[in-house]
Structures are given as C-alpha cells and as structure tokens.
Fold each of these.
Amino acid sequence: MELFTDIDEQVARLRGLLGGGAEGADDVVSVMRALDDKGLAEVMETAAKLSRSVDRIGVVGAGVVAERSTREAGHDGFAQKRGHRKATDFIQGVTGGSKGDAYQRIRVGTSILGGFLSASGRQSGAGDEESGGAASGEVQPDFGDQMGDDGSPDGSDASRAPTTPPSWHTPLDYALVRGGLSQAQYDAIFRGLGEPPAGPAAGTMSDGMPLDPAVGARIEGEFREAWRLAAEQLVDEAAHRSVEELRTAARTIRDRLDPDGADRRYFERYEARSYRMWVDADGRSHGSFVFDDEGAAFVRSVLDSALRPRLGGPRFVDAAEKEAAQRLVDDPRTFEQLSYDLLFDVIRSGTLADAKAVHGTKQAGVRLVRVVDSSGDTDGAAHTEDRLTRVPAPVADQHACDTGTVPVSATRAGDPLNVGREHRLFTPAQRIALAVRDGGCRWRGCDRPASYCEAHHIDHFAEGGRTDVDRGILLCRFHHMRLHTGGYRITRTGKRDFVLHDPGGETKDLPPRLALEYAFHGIDPPPKRFRPAA
C-alpha cells in the first residue's frame, strides 16, 4: 500500500540521517545534538512527514472508534467496553494528548468516514451483514491503491460514478488520507468553511409565491458545489500556508459565499456578549468577558497601541518615544499585569484621558476597510484592517458616519496607486494604503498584523528609489531587521508578487495574505466558481 511505502521510506531516511545509532533515548539526544544545522532541519522535516503518515491511520481510527462508541451502543460500545465513558476519553488515553486534540481527531475522522460513505455510493445491500458486507454504520476506506489519480475512490470512470453525490469536503478527505493535509490543516479548513447553507424549502420565498422544491434542491446543490470548490482551492494552498492562515481564509470565503449567514453570525456573537464577576474561596475577584467582534477588535487595539514595543512592534525614530518604549520593555511587570493596569487606566480616565499618555504614539481605534468599485458598487460589508474581522454593512455605515472615511484608489489587481517621492518616509496615507494591500507582515508564515509592521523600501531611497506604495512592503520589526542584517533583499517586477531573495540565492514568492485574496480580491467580486448561481 502507498501508505506503508511512505512510512517505510521515512523510517529508512531517518535511520540514515541519524546514522543508525540512535536506538535508545540517550542515543537520540546525543546524536541529535551532534547534527549540524542542515542535518537537524532534514531530521525535523522527515520526522514531521513520518508523523503525518502515521497520523492518517490514527485519525480515521478515531472516527471508527466514535462510530462504535455512540450513546445508543450503551455498555456494548467500543470505548465503554474498555472502561471509558465515551470515545474522547479512550482516544485521549491512547494518544496521551489533550481532550481538545481528541475531539479534533474524532471530528476529522468522523468527517472523513462520512465523506467516503458519500463518495462510495454503497450499492443496495452493501454493509448488510446478510450480504457479507461490513456491519451497518461502518465505513472501511482504503488508504492507498484504490484511489485514482483523478481523486475518485477507485479511479472509476463516469459510467461507474457513485449514485450518491459526493460530500463537499471530499477533497479534504482524500487530501488527508493521501498525505496532502495534516489533521490540524483539515480541521482548520473544515471548521472554517462550516456546513453550506440549506436550500430554501417550499413556500418560503420572500414574495409569498410558492417555491418548487426542485428549485430549492438546485440552490442547495450549488452551495455545496461552491463549498467543494473552495475546499479544493484551500487544499492547493495548504502546502505553503500556516494552519492559522487556512482557518482565516476559510472563514473569509464562507462569509463571501454566504453574506446573509455572515451577518447572522455577527449579530449572534453580539447578542452573546457578556461580562461577569465572581469571588473565589480565597477572596480574589475574577472577571470573564465574552466579546462581540467589534468589542474584541477595540480592546485589541487598545492593548496593541500601548504595549506594542513590548511585543516587538515598530521602532521609534523620535528619541523621547524610543526612551519611553525602552522603559516599557524593561518594565518588570508581566504582560498580563501591564494589560490589566492599562485597561484600568482607560476605565478610570474615560473620555478625559490624555490619548498619548495612555495609548502611546498611536491612539487606539478600529480601522475598517470596505471595497468599492469604480462605479461605486459595494456589497456593504467591511473588514478590520488588523486580523480581518468581517463587519456587516450597517455596522460599517455607523463607523463611517462617526469617524469619516479615507478613500484609497487601487488598481484592478488591488495595488494602491503611486503617491510619489516627495517624502523620505512613507506618509500616513501611504501607510493606510499598504495596510489595505498587505494586511500585515508579508514574510512567509508571519502573522503580525499591520499595526505591528514597518514600511520597507525595496529600492534604496539613497540610490534613487521612490517612496511609492507599489515599491514598498510591510514587514514586522523582526523580519525587517532580518532582511537588512541577514543579506536578504526583496524585488518586484511591475505589479507581480514580491520576491524574497535569500543569501544563498534561493527565491520565494511573497504572496498576499490568503484571507485578503478573498476579502479584497482586487476590486472585483469573488470568482464565479465561488458563488452559487442566483
């Protein structure tokens, strides 16, 4: 089988990298410490591949354990017969992981089994004990040779297509069992996209006219097809995107595909907002917030504005600001204590606060980005500049009335237009444009938001480089310093992606943040393949 071939190859490679002498725990420690940097990197990459290959068995096994440990099975359930109340307890005991990891394994495994059940289109009587098939409710996917190159369960042609329509998450199922996705990547995409909305039922049209059930079924089918295509797209991105990026992008795609559902979820979270206090047995007072989206964005902005120097934010040019930042870095209080004291400074001072004294250089606030095309059309919704939280149209309109707007003209590819070379440093307006385009640090794998970034000139100003938005890029402080001190450089041809050149001569594209590709997508609507037909 392909699965065990992969495992054998990775084990053999590890044995070769470690010299075959790392048999005991002490041997592994000594051999690993003796590796050079290149060898250590190869060992870590190979171990990760091996872990992913083995995990494919454990994840599907978790799904089967859950199937055999249902409440209906009672004491005869798989986990119950082994002394556990439920499947998660058994999985946690076997793996030694957290309860959250056990839930994730079962969630992913159950989803995969459901997808294989749908894709296999079980014939009448299959799974029936009398017909010699698997017991009812069991699914037995093959991990290897029975999957065709086209992603179908057995490489069959159209004449042998399954009678049951494939699940929308079938691309995720096959990617995981073939090693293209990790358990965490699968879960991030699956939960980020969520289930497609159901089609309208008969008699539910807004104009009061009866709806043909076939029309409702067609609409539901188009939603599921759009979700399937979105899953395919994110599987393709998974090789060079982090789990956090995939999760954020999946949620962004879901909100673009189902704006009504996105607004509903936003207001549900708003209605769930709460704060409570209690005193424990030792007399200590505790507090617990459940934030709505806008409230969470504002609190993050307050903390970021004042504590950014402690978290590796932009460097300060002004001597006084630099000194104040250093005092904050040297402050003996923990980050949690600083956050507590800051929030109470804000609460005490209220609207009479000296903004610079409380918040630092940049006063706290939430900046929203709304895409409007050249004709003035927009879907109304917006997203926060930092962390890309979606905000429904009425809330965005309220912000515009309260704080005004800053128009940023952009090309059809989403690149803000040039502003010129009049300034040595990027102006505030240009910084806004960079934040809209980049969404944060563009270095691969970095999750620092725009407010933590510095604007880098890819063409040195002293050598005639222009302070233009299309020749600038946002980098967090760490990666900006890394670029200048580590022999890296960034180039760009026209409006194409920025390219990072490392000291060894290798190059890597620096594509936009994945979620921004869907939240912004130039000034065009999302591709038709991601939108169900009207």
Amino acid sequence: MSSAPLLQPSPTLEYFVEGMDCAGCVRKVEQMVATLPGAAEVRTSFNKQTLELQLDEQQTPRARLEANLKSLGYAPSLRGGQTQLEDAHSQGEAGHAHAHSHTHEAEPGKPWYATGQGKLVMASGVLLALAFAFSFIEPGFSVYGYVAATVLGVWPLLKKSMASARFGDYFSINLLVAVAAIGAVLIGQAAEGAVVVFFFAVGELLEGVAAGKARAGIQALAALAPKTALLLEGDQVREVKADSLRIGQQVQVRPGARVPADGRILSGASSLDDSPITGESVPVDKGVGESVFAGSINQSGVLTVEVERAASDNTIARIIHLVEEAEASKAPTARFIDRFSRAYTPGVVAVAALVALVPPLLFGGEWHTWLYKSLSLLLIGCPCALVLSVPAAITSAVSAGAKRGLLLKGGAALELIGGVKTVAFDKTGTLTAGRPRLTGVVGLNGDETEILRLAAAVESGSDHPLARAIVEEAGRQQLIIPASRDAEALPGQAARATVEGRSLRVASPRHAASLGLLPAPLQRVIETFETQGRTAVVLLDGNQALGVLALRDEPRPEAKAALAELRLMGIRPLMLTGDNARTARAIAFDLGLSESEVQADLLPEDKLRVIAELSRAGGVAMVGDGINDAPALAQADVGIAMGGGTDVALETADAALLRSEVSGIPALVGLSRSAMLNIKQNIAFALGLKLIFLITTLLGYTNLWMAILADTGATALVTANALRLLGWRFKRLEAPQLERQRSASA
C-alpha cells in the first residue's frame, strides 16, 4: 500500500517591483495579491521595492501575477531568475536550457529622469510648454497641445485605475485625477486639465525621489562591509571574497582596513572606529577576546579575528534587515490613516457628485460652474499626502536611528516608546557594566582558596556574569579547577554540579536560607557585604554551607545621568533585579534611584508579574540583556535589548541599542517623540491645505490647476518634512526644554 505523497510548500518568489515606492503603491499591490488563489506569506516593502510571497502555481501561474503587476503600472523583475514572460521569450529563441542560464536583477538606483515616471513628467512638460508657446502664436491651435498633454498624462492613470478596479479598489487616486482631467477637457478647460495631470505626475515623481533618499542611507550602510578579506591559512594569507567567509575561519585585519566580518579578536590589540555601526564617535580600544563588527575601521595594530557570523547574518546585515522590515509593523496611527482613507476617498466622490448635481437640479445653478467646482473637489480630495504622512516619517526616523545605533523593529515600537510612563531596567549588565569582580571570600573554616576553587568548578560551564567573575578570579590566582559533571542552572536560585564526587551548589543567600542551610555567622557576613553594594553567593556541599563569595558590579558611568534625563522627560525609571534588597539599594543609591524605584529579590516570573502590573497602569518599556530577561522583554509594551545582549534578548525585543550605554534609552524616547511630532505636522499639512482649498474652491477663488496643489503641494510639504528626520540627532536637553518637548508630543 503506497503512502500519500507529502505536500511540498509552494516556492517563495521575490520580485523587485519598479515604481512601487510609496505606501499607496504597496496597498494597491497587496489588494491585488489578495485576489490571487494560492498566494500566501505575502511581504511587501516600499523601502526595498520588493514583493515576496509563496505562490502555488497550480492555482495561479506566475505569469498571471506578473501581468497583474504590469497592469497596475509596475515593472516586476524576479530576483535570482527571469520573469515567466521573459523566460518564455528566451525559450522561443534559444531553448529551455539557455532560458534559465540568465539571472535578471533590476537596478533600483536609477536617476529620476531615467525612470518611467521621470520620462512621463518630461514628455508632459515639453507638450505643455509647446502648447503654452502656441497660445501666443495661434491660440486656437494651442488647444490641441493641451489636449495631447492631457491624454499623455491621463492614459497611464486610466489603465492603472481600471486595473485597480479589477482588484476591488474602485475609487483609486488615479481615477479621481483622470476623471477631473477628462472633465476639464470636456467643459472647455483643456489647459487646466493638462496642468492637473502634469502636477500630479510631478507629485508622484517626488514621492519616488523621497523614497529613494530614505533608501540611500541603508544602501550606504550595506556598502560599509568590505568586499574582500585576508584569510589566514596556516602561515599563508590569501585574499578572498568577504561573503565567502565561514564561521570559525581566521582573518587578518591590517591598520586602516575595515573588519570583514563579525568576530572575536584572537591576537593583537588596536583602536577601532565603530561609528559606522554604533554611531559611537570615539574610537574603542579592543584586545584579545573582545568582539568586533563587520565594517568597523581598524586604526592601529594588526589583528587576527575569528569569524563568528556569516556575511548574511553579521551586524550590518541585521541592521539592514530590521530597517527594511520595520514598515511591516505599522504604527497605530498608520493603521488608522489607512482605515480612514478607505472611507474618505469614496466620500469625496459622493460629495463631488452632490456638488455637481444638487445646485443645478434643485436651485437652478449653472451646470458649467458647479461641474467645474465638482472636478476641483475631486482633486482636493486625493488622499496621497495623507496616506504618505505616516510611513514617510516612520521610514526616515527608523533610518536615522539605525545610523546612530538605535534599532527599531517597526513603526509600532517607534510610536509606543515615546509614550511610555515607566522604563524598567534589569540591573546586571544593563544599569551595571555586567563585569562583576570577586571582591571577597569568607569560609567557615577559613580556607578561602578551596572555596574559590570549588565554586569555580561549579560555575565553569556558565555564561552568567557572576559565574564568569568567579572563574576569572580562579584563573588569576592560577588555581587548578577540577572537572565537573551533571551541571545544572536553577534560575534565580542556584547553579549545581558534581565535583570530585561531591554534590555542590553555588546558591543565592535567599535560596540557602529557604533550605535552612545558612548559619548565623555567614548570615552576618552576607549582610555586611550587601550593605556595601556587593552581591553574595553561598557555596553549599550537600546540606552544609562552606562559605560565602562576594562580588561587586559597578554601575555604568553614564547610567545615573541617563536615568535623571528620563525623569525629566516625565518617565519613571525602575530597577528590577533578582539581587537582594540591601545590595539593590546600595547600587540604586549610586544611580540616584529612590527606594520606591527599586524592586529586588525577583525571580524571572516575578519580573513578568511586575511588568504586567505596570502595563495596566500605563505604557511600560523593559530594558535587559540576558536570557532571563527575554520573557519580560516580550511582556512589556516595548522591549529594548542592550547591545551586548544575548541573541534571545535581541530577537525578543522591539528595539535594540548597538552601544551598551543606558544613554541610548533617552535617545530612543527623543527619536520617538520627534517622529510623532513630525507625523502630526504632516497630517496637519495634508488636511490643512485641503481645507483651505476646499473653502476657496466652493467660494470660487481657486481653479483646477490650483486645486491639484492641495494634493501635490501637500505631498511635497509632507515629503520634505519627513526627510528632515534623516538628519535627526538627539540633543541632551535641560529641564525647561524637555517640558516643552513633552507638551508638543502629547
């Protein structure tokens, strides 16, 4: 009996879609794809101008998808292969084998005048100029020039609007402009019809240019990683392509060269300029064992670096991926604008129809006058600028943040960060440097060296900062650390292992006390350590306490100022830690935190509970860097991972700081508030201009070609305003300035 064949997933196709460079374009493409049977996992990006989807070609042939895209006015190019239409053409000429030997890749970086839209604008402009010139020579003949310019501009709009109607978008922007232009010609206003389509074409071209400027920063980031690397093979050095490097290989980085891959320094020491990646303007001294980023500039010594990430997964690639994917997570404001515009455009058509019909039919108005005003209303009602207002600002803000080491995974995160009421920080590795040092050992029987040796054996397999500090101190004292087996971590409680046949645990004092294994002398020692801001752990052998180890993790030098800045911004800082209350209070005092801004003795599940309570009381952001922070990062309204954090924390978080500095948190808040202020300005520009032109049109003060400025002019304003965010820099503000900024973004 034969088994049923396993269903294979549909292949994933990725197209570069020339011309899909605005939010409205993306929406049209998504509406079209939604009508195709067998299309799934659809992802669009106007930043990259790409469409990615899984397509079951048994239900919908690829050629149908490509034809639909072309009917909407876009030119699709399949990444990594030919489109089916090109493929069929090649097969007809050179056979099947040749058809698949060619890889077609579109080049998105065309100058504006080489694009289809650019050529249309220039051709329309020439016809318009000629017609205008003829109006002085032979006025009757100039009408033909205006009609020709109108037809040239309207024809692609009609094709796009008919295609949109086939896919459910019956009131597209293209239809409104086409109807207004044709109506102008029919009522004897050919010159105004020509100017309308010309201005509209210019507006669409401006959108494309703006999107290109926003993309340029990300493309420049991609160019930072060097194309070649010096691969070490024994004593030989060979130049290879950087994207061919594999994890575990070793490369040589000479002074003045860029680091070719994310990795770890095996030998050498140097000063590295990380500014292209993290935004840090001051070069950083690094030595053996420290991490380096692809694209950083080596300024002095020769380094040998072990590759730890492939080119497709290095820091630059991850930044680019985050920025490109950011638009997929729409800001709540963007979702509202989308819903609003879907109802708004049909509403504009209905109002325009009423303006055209009601006054002449019911009040004896002049048909020509009210038809003219109706056509003007169609143009005023175009929602281009409104639809563009949010994504243009979000894209610019996310790009500006990425250039300064502030990574955001979407518009939703960008919008929410500026409105949080509380920022909760994990202590170790976030508010503190995450590099604790062993500062004291006390044994019940006085043998401190033996206690350190055994504790290091238990912690030897752990990556926890406290564990590393114990192992490093044992290494500094040149102790021989015995092997351990059956090692296990109990989060928030203890690490345990079998060492030299003994069942040992390195436990928190609270856990040891809960087991009744903390004698009074050790309890007093622990209390002394904790009041000094030191973290204590207890070494247990079975049911007996052997001694106490004390560690101190110093606060980050910039943390106190950053917390004060958050407070001035109207945000309450809060420290969450699994450490004991006395140690937490001592660290909090150094950071300028009050007792009410510290919660200690928290297990990972306790952090989740606290975050949930804070979220109900108002927006909360959680900042952390470790595996045990991942659940809290996911629970918070906004999760922010510190730069040196684990991959789990970085994947869970909504935002990340490439620099391990708390000062990045106020900067993120400032970026969010600047972006939201920009969005509000954009919406005000878009709606304000429309309102002004609506009133002046109904009163008879504006004509058709001026009415199109309500859309094209607003589009230009919104675009220019959004692009200002590309140059954003966070300014450390004094209290009065912060108050003004908070009021403006409220």
